[in-house]
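Entry for the shared binder. Reason: the reviewer on the internal report wants the predicted structure included alongside the sequence.
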Amino acid sequence: MRAPILLLLVLGCADDESVPTPDDGAIDPIGSYDVFAWTDPFIGTGGAGAQVTGVGPHATVPHGMTLVGPDTRHSSYGAPAFYHYGGYHWDDDRIDGFSHTHSHGMGVNDYGGVLVMPRDGWDDAWTRSESRAAPFSHDDEEADPGWYSVTLGDDGTRVEIAATTHGAIHRYRFAAGAEPVIVVDLGHTLGTASIGDAWVELSTDGFEGFQSLQGAYSSRHGGAPHHFVGTVEPQAVGVGSWDDPEAPSDGGTRGQGPDSGGWLRFAPGTTEVTLRVGLSWVDLDGARANHGAELSAAFDDTRAAAVDAWRPYLEAARIRADDDVKRIFHTAHYHSLIMPSRLDDVDGRFRWDGAVHQADRPMYTDYSLWDTFRTLHPWLILAHPSTQADLVQSLVRLGELGGGVPKWPIATGYTGGMVGTPADQVFAGSFLKGIAFDEASAWEQSWAHASGPTRSGRDGISAYLERGWVAFDDVGQPASRQLEYTWSDAALAEWAEAAGRSEEAAVLRERSRRWSETYDPVQRWCIGRYADGGFEPLESAAAWAESYVEGNAYHYRWYVPWDADDLIAVQHDGDREAFHAELEAYWEEVYREPDDDLPDTFYWHGNEPVLHYAALGSLTGEPRLTVEPMSWIAANRYSDGVAGLDGNDDAGTLSAWYLFAALGVYPVAGTDRYAVGAPLVQRAEIDTPDGSIIIRNHLDESGRTPGQVTSAREPLDAWVVRHEDLLRGLTFEP
């Protein structure tokens, strides 16, 4: 039996613990160390089947517009779309070229814009990716935050890339005797994406042009408009172009059309070429301005500037832990800071929903909100609140300009991707945790889509509000949608209560309890209903059913983290012990299931609906059923290898889960509460504008249920800590 929890009030923030031992790693402050040495962009770049991550080792700066690096293929099986969401897969052995835009861990093919490729001489076959693709070895490949490098295995060209916010600088070093060329291929795409239109003009000074990339999501609003400018040093001695890859024109200065491209040729014997590429979503003038503002320095200085951009972010979190945990943690921190990405140019102009606007603060796009509301945005609120403030305010403004809060914006417009209105949880959680933004405008937009049809709002909302449940008759996947709507309404209710909107709070609180309308007490699952009230017959809880988005009945069984007491009341008539018995049996099934390349039946950590399941133990007063599964997930679904993530990272969502697990807490999105578990580290220090958050872990080993947890502010409320108390630190003791 575990010792009962003792909740103590510890005054002050001193490091003199009550039961220290001389070698207790929780006590001594963590000295400075090189976080870059513990950050490995290759972690999670592999995987197979459902465990493919969509992660690449591309160069970028925090929340930059560009994510620049290799698009790869395999000499035997090519470049299957599913393995190349992010352009790169560890098992590949050939590089098609280096494109300038990628998503991070996204589960569809998009981006991969403006691909360039150095070669040691021109061949008409270089107009085709599969023909010019160069072999490479991981032994000749390196990456750090902001920088990527590889040696091409056939001609020995050394490629280095350093990122800026709106572009990148490339340095190519060629073998002696080469007659180097740089190929610009505007017909290149990732997987199922296509090109709507493109053109490029070339001169001996470089190139400029446009590429409308039609990805799985960006095509929904007309495509991602890549405007680009590239300059070279030294000057080229010749150019060529093509409209049709089968008919390249040596000396041609313009390529036009969806398969177009061109090349620059340098003097024989040239051993080094520097290429600087600036991009803009707005127009060619924006690309020129971005290029001029960010790409005038030498390569090494630009690389150093990228490191300087990363340093304050990555050094804000320090841990004392085993080496593998340390590598996973710092790489997860890095991955949590890639998306959302920058939308506006250096002059503040940005394109959104078909028009150009002016910004007075940074603007962002690429919000994978159905994923990131759960862990990523709570992490940014905790560790990077000023960044979160910009991200939230940007989201508010995009909604103002477009007539509805986007649920998955990419590049310059709406996609309507996924379900629900997850910006609600982001807005509510940010407000409740003290993030400053235009709260009145955000509330107006959230209240609107909770009350009726809006752009990018809740599908089937009118019938749902009238009937009380989302029905198959109105829209697909009704169980998932209703569970999403009720979670959002619960978050909006807490926000309304805190902001003094009592009438709206009462309405939303009642609606949040409608999650139970999806629960069939006969089948004992949350499942979709029809307009006449009947539930969909569930043939197998393990099979993906029409009731759900990306999951099965197990994955949506307990989708009520905001009110776990109500969950027990509905599913077990308030019998807490019965719920805990069911939860324990469930985790035993999870532990026994083989970890193969298919989506896991019981708990699929590589997808979002179950991410809060490990928190349910502490949320219902049984911390062992949080500590044990959280420790198991961290040990069995993460590693410091290339298969170190359990599926798509989805803009840093899985990475942020690990960051919280390392601290021993898990956020209930849309609230100011965290479930308390046990840290994976001895000590953690998270710097914030108001001081450092210190986590002290006196337990003998990670995964052991604490007998005593103290806050430096006031006693914890059972096994739940509020944000204001977490900011003052936690101490875990046997």
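Summary line for the report: The chain has a mean pLDDT of 94.
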